[in-house]
Amino acid sequence: MKYRQFESAFSAARLSKYKNACGGNTVKALTLYRYNVRLCQKFYGVLSIFEIVLRNAINKHFSSHFNDADWIYHQLQNGGMLERSPQRQDTLNDITDMVSKGKYTPDKVVASVSFGFWTYMFTKVPFRLGNQSILQIFPARQTGLGQKAIFKELQQIKMFRNRIAHHEPICFDATGRKSMVYAQANYALILKYLTFLGYDKNHLFFGLDVLPESVMNKIDAL
After folding, report:
1. How confident is the model at residue 1, as a pLDDT?
2. What integer is the mean pLDDT of 10-31?
3. Cβ neighbours around 95 below 10 Å, total
4. Is the pLDDT of residue 2 over 90?
5. Angle at 197 between CA 192 and CA 199, to 5 degrees
6. Which DSSP category does 142 fall into?
7. Cα–Cα–Cα angle for 47, 50, 55, nearest 5°?
8. Neighbouring residues of 73: CB distance < 8 A, sequence distance ≥ 6
9. Contact present, 81 and 126 (Cβ < 8 Å)
10. Which of 27, 88, 164, 176 is the most exposed place for a label (fewest CB within 10 A)?
């Protein structure tokens, strides 16, 4: 396919970012576009694993803290820790739907809610109503790192995740130049929180072709 055909497929506006970053070189622009897609694919795997590990740690903690395997449903009720959650009504609707179909289990609820549902746990109100206990999920947490800082960093990971989910490029800086600074910073942040959770990257991702270092190096060298 010629470059103009790719422009027709992906839109000229979308490809122009890559073309400008490559000094007008259309061959390099398409190579960069493909590398960005591959990089997003890698990060999708890393983020999926991070989300699963984080949500399971939170679920395990509050199941024990409240002595309640169905703690999400009960804490969504009036007066509960999650009463003010932005996902409250959607989650209750999903639970009602599961019950009506005879498919409801607490584990299905854990798997169904969004990443934003879990990061909300680190905001001020649920943190207080949970007796400030959620930080216990991070046995290797950096000394002095508190609720506000953790929430801010998890929000940063969430925004990075959403950018990938919406098919936005992650290979540019704020001025549109080719750069791996943004992706590398978020990758380091994800690995930091996996360490806080008590996991070693080399063990957790063993045998999985998801680590993005090689693609980031190729983009840097392009």
Report:
1. 82
2. 95
3. 19
4. no
5. 80
6. P
7. 125
8. 95, 106, 109
9. yes
10. 27
